[in-house]
Design brief:
Elements: E1 12-15, H1 23-36, E2 59-65, E3 73-79, H2 81-87, H3 96-99, H4 102-118, E4 122-127, E5 138-146, E6 155-162
Antiparallel strand pairs: 1-4, 2-3, 2-6, 4-5, 5-6
């Protein structure tokens, strides 16, 4: 399970209130809230990129494959152009462990597992711990769960702002 202590000390903090986040993160969270309406979780089909074109370059979609916990893996379905530039390569179509060193990938997977298990958003900020050569950069991010059936999380949607 994802814990604050699992992250490289001094590089991460969990944000507990959406009002503490940057405007772009608050905007995507508001879209997610509208998408879900009275349901517990929205589905990918509820998201219309036309609604937030100014956010797309920083957004990502990640497939949760399969839904069984023991065999679960995460594949990046879409990575915005600003994230590609920050990462120095395109993660689209790749599993998290294919594009990151093991420790960093494990931490990213733990964060994704946390969102899947809790079926709730995760907001965080800190140093860019998943890129060893760019830890001097900082980030703020939100990861939001999506479910095709309102029960089982099958995709993650989010935004990461690198600065």
């Amino acid at each position: 399970m994802f814990m604050d202590r699992d992250i490289i000390p001094g590089t991460y903090r969990r944000i507990t209130a959406i009002t503490e986040c940057r405007t772009e993160i608050q905007e995507l969270h508001a879209v997610w809230q509208r998408m879900r309406g009275a349901r517990e979780l929205p589905a990918r089909r509820d998201f219309d990129p036309v609604e937030v074109p100014w956010l797309l370059s920083r957004m990502f979609l990640v497939d949760v494959l399969p839904t069984d916990v023991a065999a679960r893996r995460y594949r990046v379905r879409l990575e915005g152009t600003e994230l590609v530039a920050s990462h120095g390569r395109d993660w689209t179509g790749r599993f998290l462990h294919e594009v990151n060193e093991l420790a960093a990938a494990d931490r990213l997977v733990a964060a994704a597992d946390y969102v899947v298990a809790r079926r709730a958003p995760l907001m965080s900020a800190g140093q860019l711990y998943w890129l060893a050569d760019k830890r001097y950069y900082h980030y703020e991010s939100i990861v939001l769960p999506l479910a095709v059936d309102d029960r089982v999380v099958n995709m993650l949607m989010g935004i990461t702002i690198v600065f």
